[in-house]
Design goal:
31 helices; 2 strands; 660 residues; single chain; two-stranded antiparallel ribbon; mainly alpha
Amino acid sequence: MPFLPSSSSSSSNSNFTVFYTSQSSHRLSKLCFKIPILPLHHFSSSPSYLSVTSCSSQDSPPPVLEKDSSVTTKEISTEGVVPKKESYPQKVLVVRRPVMEFSGDGESEESEEDADLRSSAIDAGLTEFAKKMPLFEPERVDASGSQLEKPLAVNLDLALYKAKGLARSFRYEEAQEILEKCIYYWPEDGRASVALGKILSKQSKMAEARAVYEKGCQATQGENPYLWQCWAVLENKMGNIRRARELFDAATVADKRHIAAWHGWAVLEIKQGNVKKARQLLAKALKFCGGNEYVYQTLAMLEARANRHEQARYLFRQATKCNPKSCASWLAWAQLEIQQENNTVARLLFEKAVQASPKNRFAWHVWGVFEANMGNMEKGRKLLKIGHVLNPRDPVLLQSLALLEYKYSSTNLARVLFRRASELDSRHQPVWVAWGWMEWKEGNIAKARELYQIALSINSTSESAARCLQAWGVLEQRIGNLSAARRLFRSSLNINSQSYVTWMTWASLEEDQGNSVRAEEIRNLYFQQRTEVVDDASWVMGFLDIIDPAIDSIKRLLKFGRESLNKDKESLENITEKNGSSIDEDSVGLSSGLSGGKDTEGSGTGIDLDAFISEKLSLDPSKLDVQLESYKVSVANRTRPRRIWRSERRTAKIPPRVSV
């Protein structure tokens, strides 16, 4: 029964008496409208009472308002409060209301015709009022009182897609506004909270991102593993390792099939030196989630670090079998073959990587650096230019291209490339360090110090900062500032105490000065404080049984001795079988590549590079330099009007020069 408002504000005599009759009581619940309280002077001075009844479908509906003279005024005065719902008898409701008696000389009583007109007017008013009554519970209203309707679910997907595009364009404020609306309307959907947290973390608003993740976990009742995993990654970046472990654990409890949580937790343990714990986590990931290229790749890299190369090759093969388009797996496998000096196999794997992901900047960069180190300067330059044309906003490609031009071409051209790389990303420390190294080699000591200071002002606790301090220490050592060099070496070791190069450089400085005792002390300090990761090989048998049991070939693969040429031939054949093509051993130069000899020839082993970039990437190999310049100009013109958000606290500024 809808709530009947009281009319005590109009008159103190406006009391209600509620009566029920036995007929049609089951239809009362379907009667859902309110009776408005009208001013008391609308009725005649004679006592009249209003009644609301329900009728059966056979009878004609009675008037909504009718007089009932069977009830006296005395009954009205005794009923002051409407009884509770539980005390109502199961009868038809009859609401009676007294009419104010008008007294005074200037007032005249209304006639019966006026009363009938009033009754018909009230009847029409009630009909209009009933049309406006909501049938369901009212929705949320905003501050102005207007009703807010929840949008359709498809709007959430559209809003998330739009926010993603805005975030890629560095329009973080607009993306944040859209995501906050999504969280308001759909708090139970964790995708908006995940996206908003990532945008805030990119802006270095770590506390706000943490609050978003925490509220998202509460709204989803802790059942969304993506929120837990993103929160754990955030805490790991902030250095809260213990808290990150707890959050990774919560993510795996929320969904034990969430592969990203297992893998992220394992990577955290690897960085902390807990290799055994990392292997256990990766084994659980394969047990609960099945084969995954990232898990296989991480296990393969652990095996390569432990010098178990056959197991590493097997795991890399499993990773590429799970996802042949995984560019990272092909590149990591190529790095293993480079370490083993299997250059032909490495080149073939690089080709597989660019075929899997033609626009991947890492593939073109690593392949270009590899060819340059092999002495194929022209091919290395070409690969780096292709990578830069495809990724014009990547400073790493320009940095490597600048170093290549400095080594083989012109210093001025290298400076131009370094300057453009620093304009693309002024917070990329390796660009400033490499530029400072080049200026030091050219004899510009003041310029080199200035560039080193810029690099340290960006972040003074990172690995790049440790390398910068080591390079700066070598600079001061060469020009005779030995006390400054010692302080710089010590500062570098405070950041990274495991750097063999820094310890040995400091020891050589002392030895050159005739302090052989001090040099020996420094070497002993390195061996005393270094952290050795003891990796037990006994786990391999049982673990690979979990991966693929009942396969005898795995046990043959687990022989720790290297089986020279036949095993490597098999690995190369397995690589080429993935595309259904076979490569002739004579055309590939298989014997020289797999026997450990260095292959310095730049001839490709599979694809025609010019035809590949023309067909797949729509690039003209003969006009690559022209396209490179046009891309540089277009990037410069596009970045001028764009306002990219930069935190004032983290903006790279040139500090006042400090005498070292």
